[in-house]
Amino acid sequence: MPRTLVAANWKMYKTSAEARTYFDTWRTLPAVAGREVAFFPPYTLLHEVSAYLRPGEAAGAQNLHEAPEGVFTGEVSAAMVLDAGCVYALVGHSERRHLFGERDERVAKKFTAALNAGLRPILCVGETLEEREAGRTLQLVLGQLQAAVGMLPPTAGFDVAYEPVWAIGTGKVARCEDAAEVHAAILEWLKKRGAGKDARLLYGGSVKPDNAADLLATEAVHGLLVGGASLQPEEFHRIVTAGL
Question: Do 216 and 11 form a contact (C-beta atoms < 8 A)?
Fold first, then answer.
């Protein structure tokens, strides 16, 4: 199993000057042995952030287009983000699914495009509150996994992030036992299909310094996908070092 991965999704925040200030502070904080850190800044900062990274740190794209090139104004291809220094790419983040209408079929194409370009995609899956209350969590999550990984699943080269939609940016966090149940089901699904033999399962959804250690100690949780709490370097460093 690769090292625990803690990923910072900056979403639509930070200018070049703000990123420079962030890393001026970040690089004064101790590097963390045994854990990998990945930063997912806006596209405009990818080259700059890639240049700031230390050993054990990587850059990733928050999204990409499924086509290798073409007349898609405003879009960015897998090859472009790879050229900008990315190792990772988020695919199917809940905000892409629910705010921008990305359906499973398109997420699957992006997942394949990222793999084919040599990126390591992080496939995001998760349910809404209504779906959870209806008892459909595993049906939805495993359905999203099936749609992206497909009938001929790749044996390695990707990770999966479980992000319950109702816990993103709300301050609500799935109980550790809830996360463990979903992660165990994902892990079993992958094992049965011989897929993702090196896949790490990340939890995302209102991760904070005060819950990170418990989440990382949860069975089948191999890392964290952090949103708002990653925007301050000291706070994010506390998450990265949680439980050590």
Answer: no
Considering only CA atoms, which of 233, 229, 231 is closest in space to residue 209? 229
pTM of structure: 0.96
Per annotation, catalytic residue among 95, 102, 163, 237: 163
Q: What residues does 13 pair with on adjacent strands?
A: none
- Distance between CA atoms of 145 and 134, rounded to whole angstroms? 19
Q: What are phi and psi of 29, to 5 degrees?
A: -90, 145
Residue 165 tokens, joined: 């939609």
Helix, coil or strand: residue 144? helix
Choose the catalytic residue: 93, 183, 222, 237. 93
pLDDT (tens digit, 9 = 90+) per residue, 100-114?
999 999 999 999 999
Greatest Cα pair distance in the chain: 48
Residue 54: exposed, middle, or buried by beta-carbon count in 10 A (0-12, 13-18, 19+)? exposed
Q: Establish whether 188 is a catalytic residue.
A: no
113-164 pLDDT, tens digit per residue, is 999 999 999 999 999 888 988 999 999 999 999 999 987 788 999 999 999 9
CA distance 37 to 58: 6
All domains of the chain in start order, with CATH: 4-240 (3.20.20.70)
Residue 124's DSSP bridge partners are 161
Catalytic residue flag (residue 183): no
